[in-house]
Amino acid sequence: MSDPLLDFKKSINNLRNSLNSIISKKLNLRKQKSSRLFDFRQNKEDYIRASLSNSVKELKSSAWALSGIYNINNSNEQNIIKILELVIKTEKKYEMSNFEDMVSCIDNITEITALLKSRAVKEDELNFDIPSLPSEIEPDVMADIRELKRCFNAKCYRSSTILCGRILETALHRKYFEATNKDILETSPGIGLGNLIAKLNNKVEFEPGIKDQIHLINKVRISSVHKKKEVFFPTRQQAYAIILYTLDILKKLFKQ
Predict the structure, then answer these.
(1) Lowest-confidence pick of 2-11, 109-118, 129-138, 203-212
(2) How far, in Å, CA of 10 to CA of 62, rounded?
(3) Which of 37, 114, 173, 242 has its CA 20 to 30 A from that of 224?
(4) pLDDT tens digits along 130-144
């Protein structure tokens, strides 16, 4: 069994090397057309661009796999959440061709990764910590979390992801009611997570990174539910990471 922490460290180094190459060559992500049938320089530049793209994907994939060492100790839990947030930020900077900021993100990821403890977690050791919840939504959320556990243990990872979206919707509906004293389900019964966050923007002060977490879960949920060219089927590590994100958001939304 491979070590998820070692794999993640390798992906960090690969991305750093790819970034150094593209920065030193002063390249951007846009491919340049060449009039030559075979242009060695152009091919080399395209290779560097492809290498960076693959390295970003590798970093994201190996970050998901860190869920395997999530509950070794309390510090791992919070540090992996921070790493996942930084990986999302890194991907955004890549899409914007903001390579200097990517370097800064990688430095931060490297610093936090050094604090992680490694030991592969067996499947029967997985445990979901349940945050404190308002009494008004606790029965519904707890029912969903119990169902979530059953789905995850039965290896129904797509169903697990969909339930995470439902749990978030319940929590955000409650936050909206607490902020406005209005039940948004009465006025907008079909409102989605994205629109709900937009409505909450000026009414609730979110902790840094929480909106990115919610958008990520919503994106994965949509890919899992709605028909597209390729329906997203989460791996065990991806599903577990989404669960960690969801429970972390609940803790932040309803912290005492």
Answers:
(1) 203-212
(2) 9
(3) 173
(4) 778 888 999 999 999
CB neighbours (10 Å) of residue 65?
Answer: 21
Give the model's pLDDT for residue 32: 58
> Residue 203, Cβ neighbours under 10 Å: how many?
11
Contact 168, 249 (CB under 8 A): yes
* Cα distance between residue 1 and residue 115, in whole Å: 22
Q: What are the backbone dihedrals phi and psi of residue 227, each rounded to the nearest 5 degrees, phi first?
A: -75, 125
Tokens 């979206």, residue?
A: 165
| DSSP codes joined into one string, 186-219 | HH-TT--HHHHHHHHTTTS-PPTTHHHHHHHHHH
Give the DSSP H/E element, type plus range, for residue 152.
helix 138-153
Least confident of 10-24, 110-124, 161-175: 110-124
With respect to CATH, is domain 128-253 assigned 1.20.120? yes
- The span from the CA of 148 to the CA of 156, in Å, is 9
Q: In this structure, how many other beta carbons lie within 10 angstroms of the beta carbon of residue 7?
A: 17
Residue 171, both tokens: 């929590």
- Residue 223 makes CB contacts below 8 A (sequence gap 6+) with 231, 232
What residue segments make up the domains of the chain, in order of their start? 4-113, 128-253
